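User: Just a sanity check before I run the rest of the batch. Below are the structure tokens for the first item. I only need the designed sequence back.
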């Protein structure tokens, strides 16, 4: 997959910050955000791999990632690297919306565990909004108490202060 930026000013005029992760080279290309203070930011489009895509929406105290596709051994390294870098950039409170994930394997679960630890190291937390398939997989390996599973984005947002302040 190759993405060519024909006109950087064209992207800046859209007032959005988009980055693409090249599946082949794991290169992160960024355009600096140009957003007026009155305007709401447009969620960033994430193309992590052929099988995993999503958006990133940065708020003042948390970030929301809405992902679709497969979180498996193929997509896990890029997923872990991109989300880990976003945790380092801040804010460290992360909400992963996995309700549109079709499949998660042990590699994906391992990445979630590593990202929870990274968020906690950075004084943040990681909330996961799931669907029945993801919840069943997490419960099968008995990680439901370690991973903070939520049924909706609203529940995840409401649980952030409780986890951060406890």
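Assistant: Here's the designed sequence for the first item:
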């Amino acid at each position: 997959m190759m993405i060519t930026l024909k006109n950087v000013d064209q992207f800046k005029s859209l007032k959005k910050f988009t980055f693409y992760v090249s599946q082949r080279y794991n290169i992160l290309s960024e355009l600096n955000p140009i957003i007026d203070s009155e305007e709401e930011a447009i969620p960033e489009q994430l193309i992590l791999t052929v099988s995993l895509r999503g958006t990133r929406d940065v708020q003042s105290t948390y970030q929301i990632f809405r992902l679709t596709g497969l979180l498996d051994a193929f997509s896990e390294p890029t997923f872990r690297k991109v989300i880990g870098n976003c945790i380092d950039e801040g804010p460290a409170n992360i909400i992963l919306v996995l309700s549109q994930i079709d499949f998660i394997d042990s590699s994906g679960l391992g990445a979630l565990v590593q990202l929870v630890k990274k968020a906690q190291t950075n004084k943040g937390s990681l909330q996961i909004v799931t669907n029945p398939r993801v919840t069943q997989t997490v419960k099968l390996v008995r990680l439901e108490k370690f991973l903070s599973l939520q049924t909706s984005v609203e529940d995840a947002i409401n649980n952030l202060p409780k986890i951060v302040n406890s």
